């Protein structure tokens, strides 16, 4: 690894801000993909054995864009897309992009009630939906008047009595179509819903430039570049969408499975010669097999894996492992420089990335000193334009041009940022502040533990105690992974006061629309969080 200093890396980031060759908009992005890859690159939906190289993808996108504009989709039209991972999803998103239209990416697990809220909140005018997902659509109680049956475009059916067919819409277009109106990088491209700790989900307004800044910077900073990228999360989430931008900018192939599978991760990496991927959290603590190191990986992004998890992944796969910090509202924010060789970076989120300035402030909005904990504030180009139709929430989220992340960070003497947890996700035990995230990272490393959620339990003596909910790997139980072994492993990773007092085994978790554990829902399940939980004090 090249010996670079922190100052060298920061200078690279600033140079990228000044000298980048990022495409101006999504039309230019498609042109760049063709220039870089020609009849290579593109998209590979390997579970369905459907591929499009860069030229084929560009032609398909403009054909679909033509079909969409023939039925009334134009610049600024709001189109909800509710699809499982399939080739029609990225094609539709890109088609909306070249038209200057707006995608509302919809979680495929939403109920009719959640869809009623989303469609009305986002002022949806058209809907692209998979045939297998029509049930909740047909049970809508408050379908917006604009979404007529003819404006419901179904993927997977060529003839339906009431709705339109995506395939027939696509077939009506031509590959030579080019919109005769201009678009801009400042055009709104997505109303991307995110859910915080309280309140209903909010739609983040993301411009074309937001996505280009998010997706293009990693390959622009890489000396070797990437030819094969794995995007294995559901496409309605943020990650696969910016990974598509990354692939197009790189001239790479984006490999998309039908669904995320931690158990198939290594198999997929090897089968498709993957060079860049996100790492699945459920297998952060797995030791793996000796042959796992035989792979083509150049970089793994392993978010919030902790020091031990990061080093375990690096040992297992023999390639650089990076962390960072981002969110829907701000995109990529902090990043660990790929070429900075410093073991102190492990477990941190690195430094402010290109196009980003960061501060850590106290409750009064005053910068804290290194080593102190405070809230991370961010500003820069390509942040969200605001929450759609929610001016009060937008005003609350910003102080001037600084976005308040709601996440707690510290910065060490070297300038590296480390996430401590959410502002509302800290546990106050006696006089000590405990990060739920830190405890979760430690418990995830316990053999047999798949996922963890840590919460505070009210306590008359200490104020709050620590409780951990454990979701175990398939085939494991509280007998094979007993509480005493879990806590014994914790003692090697956590100070005594951070070790959970209460443990509860669960078969599943409630999740937010962005697939984070819905802790608010979890703690509502019982009036007394001690009920049914293993208590370390009683056990002793």
TrEMBL record:
<dbReference type="InterPro" id="IPR025110">
    <property type="entry name" value="AMP-bd_C"/>
</dbReference>
<feature type="domain" description="AMP-binding enzyme C-terminal">
    <location>
        <begin position="438"/>
        <end position="516"/>
    </location>
</feature>
<dbReference type="InterPro" id="IPR020845">
    <property type="entry name" value="AMP-binding_CS"/>
</dbReference>
<dbReference type="InterPro" id="IPR000873">
    <property type="entry name" value="AMP-dep_synth/lig_dom"/>
</dbReference>
<feature type="domain" description="AMP-dependent synthetase/ligase">
    <location>
        <begin position="47"/>
        <end position="388"/>
    </location>
</feature>
<dbReference type="Pfam" id="PF13193">
    <property type="entry name" value="AMP-binding_C"/>
</dbReference>
<dbReference type="InterPro" id="IPR050237">
    <property type="entry name" value="ATP-dep_AMP-bd_enzyme"/>
</dbReference>
<dbReference type="InterPro" id="IPR042099">
    <property type="entry name" value="ANL_N_sf"/>
</dbReference>
<dbReference type="InterPro" id="IPR045851">
    <property type="entry name" value="AMP-bd_C_sf"/>
</dbReference>
<protein>
    <recommendedName>
        <fullName>AMP-binding protein</fullName>
    </recommendedName>
</protein>
<dbReference type="Pfam" id="PF00501">
    <property type="entry name" value="AMP-binding"/>
</dbReference>
């Amino acid at each position: 690894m090249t010996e670079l200093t922190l100052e060298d890396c920061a200078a690279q980031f600033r140079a990228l801000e000044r000298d980048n060759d990022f495409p101006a908009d999504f039309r230019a992005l498609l042109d760049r993909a063709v220039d870089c890859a020609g009849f290579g690159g593109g998209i590979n939906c390997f579970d369905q054995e459907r591929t499009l190289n860069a030229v084929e993808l560009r032609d398909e996108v403009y054909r679909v864009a033509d079909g969409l504009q023939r039925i009334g989709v134009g610049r600024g039209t709001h189109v909800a897309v509710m699809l499982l991972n399939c080739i029609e999803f990225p094609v539709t998103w890109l088609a909306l992009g070249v038209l200057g239209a707006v995608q509302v990416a919809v979680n495929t697990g939403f109920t009719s009630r959640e869809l009623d809220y989303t469609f009305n909140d986002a002022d949806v005018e058209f809907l692209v939906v998979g045939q297998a997902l029509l049930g909740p659509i047909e049970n809508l109680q408050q379908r917006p008047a604009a979404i007529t049956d003819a404006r419901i475009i179904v993927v997977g059916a060529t003839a339906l009595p009431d709705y339109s067919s995506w395939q027939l819409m696509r077939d009506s277009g031509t590959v030579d179509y080019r919109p005769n109106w201009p678009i801009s990088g400042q055009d709104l491209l997505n109303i991307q819903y995110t859910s915080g700790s309280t309140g209903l989900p909010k739609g983040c307004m993301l411009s074309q430039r937001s996505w280009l800044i998010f997706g293009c910077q990693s390959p622009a900073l890489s000396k070797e570049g990437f030819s094969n990228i794995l995007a294995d999360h559901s496409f309605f989430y943020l990650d696969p969408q910016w990974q598509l931008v990354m692939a197009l900018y790189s001239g790479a192939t984006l490999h998309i499975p039908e669904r995320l599978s931690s158990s198939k991760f290594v198999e997929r990496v090897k089968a498709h010669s993957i060079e860049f991927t996100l790492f699945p959290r459920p297998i952060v603590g797995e030791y793996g097999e000796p042959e796992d190191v035989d792979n083509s990986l150049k970089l793994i992004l392993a978010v919030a894996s902790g020091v031990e998890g990061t080093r375990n992944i690096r040992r297992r796969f023999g390639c650089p492992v990076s962390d960072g910090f981002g969110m829907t509202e701000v995109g990529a924010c902090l990043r660990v420089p790929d070429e900075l060789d410093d073991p102190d970076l492990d477990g941190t989120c690195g430094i402010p990335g290109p196009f980003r300035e960061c501060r850590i402030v106290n409750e009064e909005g005053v910068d804290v000193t290194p080593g102190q904990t405070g809230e991370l504030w961010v500003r820069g180009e390509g942040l969200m334009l605001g929450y759609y139709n929610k001016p009060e929430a937008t005003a609350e989220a910003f102080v001037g041009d600084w976005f308040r992340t709601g996440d707690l960070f510290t910065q060490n003497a070297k300038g590296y940022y480390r996430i401590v947890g959410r502002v509302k996700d800290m546990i106050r035990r006696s006089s000590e502040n405990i990060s739920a995230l830190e405890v979760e990272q430690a418990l995830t490393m316990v053999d047999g533990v798949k996922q963890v959620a840590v919460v505070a339990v009210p306590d008359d003596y200490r104020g709050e105690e620590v409780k951990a909910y454990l979701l175990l790997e398939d085939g494991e139980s509280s007998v094979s992974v007993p509480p005493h072994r879990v806590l014994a492993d914790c003692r090697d990773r956590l100070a005594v006061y951070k070790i959970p007092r209460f443990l509860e085994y669960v078969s599943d978790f409630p999740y937010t629309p962005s697939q984070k554990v819905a802790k608010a829902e979890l703690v509502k399940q019982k009036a007394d969080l001690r009920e049914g939980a293993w208590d370390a004090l009683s056990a002793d």
